[in-house]
Amino acid sequence: MKQHSEIILIGGGLIGLSLAVELKLRGATVTVLSRDVQEAAGLVGAGMLAPQAEQLPPSPMLELCLRSRALYNDWTRKLEELTELDTGYWPCGILAPVYERPPCTSLPQTPETPSYWLERDAILQQQPGLGDDVVGGWWFPQDAQVDNRRELVKILQIAAQELGVKIIEGITVEKLVTSPHQTVTEINTNQGNFRASHYILTTGAWSGQLLSIPVYPRKGQMLSVRVPDEIKPLPLKQVLFGSNTYIVPRRDGLIIIGATSEQVGLTSGLTPHGIDTLLSGAMRLYPVLQEFPIQEFWWGFRPETPDLFPILGPSSWQNLTLAVGHYRNGILLAPITAQLIANWVLDAQYDPLLNHFRGDRFQPTAVAEIR
């Protein structure tokens, strides 16, 4: 049995759901084919919105990230109005402590991207309880966070369904069927064949299994602790972004600690070394949490590309668009990805910024073969 939809999104993670909501709000008929949202990178990340804390150099990638961060307040408010639920968006700022004083303590900035170097006394005033090895750090007041794991992905699912998006779970896409005219004609899956006028690939770390594009899984292990009820007020005021560790406090006392970065393919599971790395790094950065009760451990897979930039925009097939390879910035880039790809697919409005994220930047045939 063949099923038809105007647009089919292959992948039901954060990027796919963000696009589904945007497309549906603009009047499209949308179907999302999702294998297992629990494996999606957008569900397992920490939710940092950190283009400045990441210290990305001036580049198209930095522009893309800053444009997306600027959309976040209105984007999450729209989702909250649609669902009457809280996304956990919190413009708390990010503090980036360091263990060695850098040669230069000034960073490029604009009125929209302020940053401040804090010496040890000042950074301890900003955040008491930092480790003895911290010598100073940067304060990025415009960076933020969102509660992706408990709230954002769930809210996107609810918003999509309430708008009338058809979401089919448990779908394994087996093949994209193409014609000699450089179009995708249908999708073969474990639940039958699907046809659409346009297809958008949002399959994250699994993208290379369908197309010959350089997107590879990069595993990350994470854990959470909770501030004991008797500690009031909550001791962490903002995200801590260390050199190899980040600590992300939620407003209800949960604290996320991440993340390892492992080239192990799609090997699942936790490891003693991974968890030890997280705990030792977190306790060095913020020793206060060493007595906090552990809540949960988990892992996931970031979709990595050779240059760490996403792949966005047209492919070698006229009716297949790519939105994959967001690596560690998928949560941050969800609003701008939804906006730019929807503009392209529905209105043929092509933002010149997309030129820097085309799949064929790696080699001319990088997106010219379906597996």
From TrEMBL:
It catalyses: glycine + O2 + H2O = glyoxylate + H2O2 + NH4(+). One of its GO terms (biological process) is thiamine biosynthetic process. Keywords: Oxidoreductase, Thiamine biosynthesis. Its EC number is 1.4.3.19. GO terms for molecular function: flavin adenine dinucleotide binding; glycine oxidase activity. Residues 7-344 form the FAD dependent oxidoreductase domain. Pfam families: DAO. NCBIfam families: thiamin_ThiO (TIGR02352). This is glycine oxidase.
